[in-house]
Specification:
This protein is α+β, with helices and mostly antiparallel strands. The chain folds into three domains: 1-94, no CATH class; 102-169, Ribosomal Protein S8, Chain: A, domain 1, CATH 3.30.1370; 178-381, Phosphate transport system protein phou homolog 2, domain 2 (Methane Monooxygenase Hydroxylase, Chain G, domain 1, Up-down Bundle). Helix content is 52%, strand content 12%. It contains eleven helices and ten strands. The protein has helices spanning 60-66, 111-123, 139-150, 178-202, 211-234, 236-241, 247-278, 286-311, 314-334, 342-374, 376-381, and strands spanning 32-34, 40-42, 47-49, 53-55, 73-80, 83-89, 102-105, 128-132, 155-161, 164-169. Strands 7-8-10-9 form a four-stranded mixed sheet, with helices on one face. The protein has a two-stranded antiparallel ribbon with strand order 1-2. A hairpin with a 3-residue loop joins strand 3 (47-49) and strand 4. Helix 2 packs parallel to helix 3 (139-150), helix 4 (178-202) runs antiparallel to helix 5 and helix 4 (178-202) packs antiparallel against helix 8 (286-311). The longest helix has 33 residues, at 342-374.
Amino acid sequence: MPGRRTPLGDDSVDPWTPSLTSEPVLRDSEGPSTSRNGRPAMVRRVQRVGVSSLAVTLPKVWTDSMGVHLGDSVRFRNNGQGALEIALYRDGHEPPSESQPVTLVVTDAPTSLISNLIRSAYVSGQDRITLTTHKGLSEIQREEIHRTATRVAGLSVVTDHPDAITLQVSVDPTRRRLPSLIDHLTQLVQHELSLCRRALAQQSGVLLAPVPSIEDDLTRTYLLLCRQLFIATVDPWVGQKIGGEDPQLRFCFHHVANALSAVGDQVSAMARYLQACMQSACFSGPSCADLGDKVARSEELLGLTMQAFNKVSASEAHLALSMIATTHDEFDSLMVIQTSGRRCTVLKQRLVSRLITIGELLRGVNQETLERAVEPGTAARTNGQVVVANLAD
């Protein structure tokens, strides 16, 4: 890592422009260390060059692999938190980092596989995706490609030929910050839960009509967030722009996004069960009121869990974990609900099972928050002290 240049009496010099010695490849005499991501890192001593500049040498392994020669230029970028990125810079241009267009040959592939491949290419950072076959795309395949494109944020069909369809991604990776995407996922799941609670309170399946469109929005947001996380991993500048420069934080975001997406799946299934229950004459009485209370409790747990995650609050995460444990104990009695019809009994038990699964998913998020509260990066920002409220167990 190059040392910071210290100009004397020259305000026109960029303070983040490091100075380099004239030797393109120097010694690797300093001992190896370990970076935060666990990969080996070289430790170099800062040396003085001339009167006002500081410099370090470039590792031979890197210069050999990149083909660095005397007179070549390198670009430095301040990535924050004491990190400095280095990249080869020849003829005024950096080496191209854009993803290469990908062609998916989907001859005889089922539509579900085609849809999954498109989403996977999108998440992995591909900007241009072409789908083709050895014998022309079938009408069913073409319909699935167009349908999938409408369900992925920023993905559109740019060419449509009998033997190939090309999709283009037009998403600016710096436009949406990771915390805002997490917040949007949370709001969508909360909306679904509130609809289920209101449907139980009013015993009206009509209230559940918006759930499928909310689920589509949740899927689009989840895929976009996964794409942003991938791009932030390969491009530190993007990571800095969207709040994902810390590898540990990116891992946390990914974990929480997966949990929220899974919670959304559980709530969507609950909505389908509720609609089936609304058609049964036995859907009434205290048992339904109890279910409504438990859905409201899941809403409360989701809000508390995500508040704890956003604030990195060990106290609130602990409180949420305690509430989950108490709620699950109460679910035991609901799992043996007796009603006049076997079909309604099974549906209600499935609802309770979904609520239990939601609690387990939120338990994982709260455990993640506890780990974030004490991990080295967080502790370093608070001088090694993690202060928690005096909450009773």
